[in-house]
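User: what does the whole thing look like in 3D?
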Amino acid sequence: MEFRFTPEQERFREEVRQFCREHVAPDIRQHLEARHEEHDPTLYRKIAERGWIGMQWPPEYGGQGRSHVDMAIFYEEMGYARAPTGRYTGSVVFVGNSIVAYGTPEQKAYFLPRIARGEITCCWGLTEPDAGSDAAALRTRAVDQGDYYEVTGQKIFTSGAHLADVGLFAVRTDPTRPKYHGISLLLIDMHSPGITLQPLITLGGWRVNVTILDHVRVPKDRLMGQENEGWKHVLTTLGLERAGLAPVGLLLRTLDDLAAYLRQQEAAGRPVPREHWDRFAELLTQVHAARWLAYRVAWAQDHGLPDFAESSLAKVLTAELQVRVANLVVDALGLDGVVCGEAAPLDGLGEQLYRSCLFHHIGGGTMEIQLNAIALQGLGLPREPRPARA
Amino acid sequence: MDFDLSRPQQLLQRTLRDFFQREYPSAAVRQAEATELGYLPTVYQQLGRLGVLGVGLSPALGGAGGGWLETCVLYEEAGRALFTSPHLPSVVLAGRLLARWGSAAQQQAWLPGLAQGTHTLAFGWPLDRGEAGPAPLVAERTADGYRVQGTVPHVAGWPGAAGVLLVADLAGAAGRQVLLLAPPDAGFRVTPQPLLGGEPLVALRCDALPLPAEAAVGEPRPSPELLQPTLDGAKVAVAARALGIATACLDRAVAYAKQREQFGRPIGSFQAIQHRLAHLAIQVAEVRWLTYTAAWALDQGEDAHRAAAMAKLRAGAVARDAGKDCILVHGGVGFIVESDPPLYYRHGKPLEFVLGPPEAQRALIAAAHTPFIPA
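Assistant: Here's the predicted 3D structure for the full assembly of 765 residues, as structure tokens:
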């Protein structure tokens, strides 16, 4: 066992940290309340200039051939700086890495360098109004019209669709086949005629979308992977959102800010209840556990080891910690913890975290779905019998 | 980074797992509990002959070499098997203190035997204290040695021990003195303190107990320097034992959930059971990495004071909860003493207090906090 980062990894961390000092304003949170999806194009361009968009891809696609551990370091530092990473994740992880995993050579050659240069950003469209956790119930229809597909349907909770140039959409190409077959994946130009976006504002304050597709023409060469066997690709894409991306950096930052605040209070002669420090110690301990678990997942991926749902373990743990840390911040501040805006202690961090923290319980698969994955793939428990088809 | 045990560490793990599977079924756990010693000396000495009891002690001193990582491998496997022994007081605490501060004569007299398990030492320090604070004993210097006074509750490793290591503050002088008394039975009033599960403890009271000058182990020293690194390492070892217990609880509950049928299907196919076990799997993973990263840091000579407290804090809570979950997944049969789940439940809980209760670890963690990026 060896839990030291290599000198190269330490250098990379320092580079990212220095980058954040220079380019992520300390008060970025006040300007971008919506950390997850609000997009800062200037910052995004700067990240691209460093070559960090698609850093894991091979150089011929604009990448730096970096490891998953490097990626986890990047996310940790960006999270600690409270930099917005929503479009980064959408473009690099959901779409870019999917293209790497199952795109054609032409798709790789066309899209990856453009994504890496920050010229195009991407979004991922899976969920529909009647296909949430049961994502394979999706009904958005793609009809083969010879040299193009014609796509009609509705997606919902599409993160970043209003910021994206390209979307990776799961659609039904053959409705006569059983549910888990007949699905295909298409790369759709988000500026195509027939796409309408309607904003939905989340409790956390950022925008997601209803994406309406009305007879949208998609060229045949935008099919990703195997026609009608797209469900296995969907699972691949969902699996790419791995725990190296777990927002541990943000958790560390929040606890550090809280500790500094509590110590200020004590220094000013206002005693802090023992209970708050106790909860702080418990949460800090678990955040450190989550941090090692996240690096463990990244390391295992770098070594090509099978993932027995460890990524889901890390995801559930960090999601629960987001909520418990948010609750501690609010409780430690008392009623001031739910006062909105910069006049509140910690610039309103408590109120904001309290609204945004539940995102992690839902986005990318609910906790219940993650727990199912742990039970089935991780522990080998028997599957719940599926109800007979109606 | 490398999250895998090294080849020799994997071999050690395999050897221990096979050994315990073969030699230490749950009937042996019950047999050990029925004895006054609380452990089976024959099995302990078999492990000594395998050369695994001396992990963490230098081969030059009769030990098996290796460090805290190897110690954690031993403790995880012992925990998984609920193997009870005097190893923590005898080797991890007393043995390491002798190896650090003892004279060559003391080391030669004691360490090879401790590593082989042919004799053991008790550790005269309250087992539920993991931080150096005032010692429970006070030693007064006399013309030919020391006179020791005080009461030590929760002393581990007493039954069957060939000696006891005492820790006393010096009366009227700065510093703390480690003293070795063998045989141990003179001059103490001993009150047995059997536990819910695990090795029995005793309270020792001594009234003006005379000790010769040769009882001194090293010079008097400030308490943190004298004890803290050993106590921190012992915390991580105990965390590894808790990890082993929690892992066994998870494995046994999963196996039972796959096999037990109700409503015409295995209970493990119900989400209510699946999610309980998935949560337990998360907790076990937390403890695994907190424990092994702390052990690694100790072996690197890094300051692992906070990391040890974190491992211990989380491990204690998870071992406790794992015992509960193991019983609950087994249902009624899990609540019957002839079944195994109650063994884990009883052995796990006391570990929460060993080397400091949760509140002590939490206070240490909060006080030792420094920001991830220094200001």
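In plain terms: The longest helix of chain A spans residues 274-302. The mean pLDDT of chain A is 93.
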